Amino acid sequence: MALAPLVVTDVAPADITKALQSLIPKVRVERAQWIIAQLADRVERKRISEVYASVGKRFDAIESAAIAVATPAHGATLLAINGMGDAVDQHGVESEESAVQAVWTHFLARLAAARVTYLQASSETESDRRRLTRLGFRHLADLAFMVLERENFMPLPPSEVLTPSTVNHEIQMVVVGDDLGRLEAASQIAEQTFSGTHDCPLLGEFRSASEIVAGYRLSPQFDPWQWRILIVQGEPAGCLFLTRHRLEGSGSDEGQSATPTAVELAYMGVIPKFRGSGLGRVLLDCAINVSSELGASRMILAVDRRNSPAFTIYRQRGWVETAGESAWGMEITP
């Protein structure tokens, strides 16, 4: 007896929960929590229209589903498709792949219609990697997530930071704040620092430097008062972007704010001509000082494992690796 045809449709925002219910039982607990957090953020900010979902049904039963959320600068993040790393893949059974591919083809068209030009995804297991490869994603980097607890917020003295070539130079860290001129300058400096970067260099094949910086500026957590410009001898040399996050459900230490926070080191970079002079450590010390002043409970970051200079600095300064995943990207064409 022939199967009933698979009907693939987009999901209205009001019906996202139904699609989610078909995915969550097949997803690892940690990923399920992450998916729910991403969707809850859109609901809280009344931006449910930024959630994209498509499903494939037979007899009104969902066989496959894909969900993504919009990100700044015409991007999107894939949350799941039929359950990333689900039981079907883990046991090597491919019977659902035809439904997955049908939904995926429709889903890509849905994203293109929404003017999404870049789709990113992450993987934690080999089954995730296999599925993303089959769907047409390209592996960009293996990331390490690192944490620095408040008790280790201890900047190094200048003698242990700078090289002899820069120790006597005049160095300033300028707050961007609400100065539009400084904001544009910080953006331009950041774009220059991407040249020859060791941090996710393949991302440049999918996103221009200006698009990447626009993503930082359009983020809901963007706060120009936590952005800094590094000036050496009156010349722009680098930049630092920090992001403050609330830590829900955590207690607070005496003398700190009632709502503990984590400060994310979202980005720091040095213009090529100034590299090799210890200025990366200057930026890191500034980040630690700012985090301390904000009363942060900890600092967090993600770094490309192939970026050995940065990875080494973080480890030397007391950062501890807590998790890891792989980053993937795909260009969406109309």
Description:
Residues 84-95 and 250-258 have low confidence and may be disordered. The longest helix has 17 residues, at 97-113. A hairpin with a 3-residue loop joins β3 (61-71) and β4. The chain has a twelve-stranded mixed beta sheet with strand order 1-2-3-4-5-12-6-11-10-9-8-7, sandwiched between helices. The protein has 334 residues and is of the alpha+beta class. It has helices at 16-23, 29-44, 87-90, 97-113, 126-135, 180-193, 209-218, 279-293, 308-316; strands at residues 7-10, 51-58, 61-71, 75-81, 118-123, 138-149, 171-175, 227-232, 235-246, 261-270, 298-304, 320-331. It has nine helices and twelve strands. α6 (180-193) packs across α7.
Into which percentage range does the β-strand content fall?
A: 25-35%
Strand order of the largest sheet: 1-2-3-4-5-12-6-11-10-9-8-7
Number of helical segments with 4 or more residues: 9
- How far apart lie the N and C ends? 38 Å
In terms of per-residue confidence, which ranges show pLDDT below 50 for 5 or more consecutive residues? Answer: 84-95, 250-258
The main sheet comes to: 12 strands, mixed
Helix fraction by DSSP (H/I, runs of at least 4): 25-40%
Could you give the count of β-strands? 12
Question: How much is the radius of gyration in Å?
Answer: 22 Å
Write down the overall geometry.
elongated
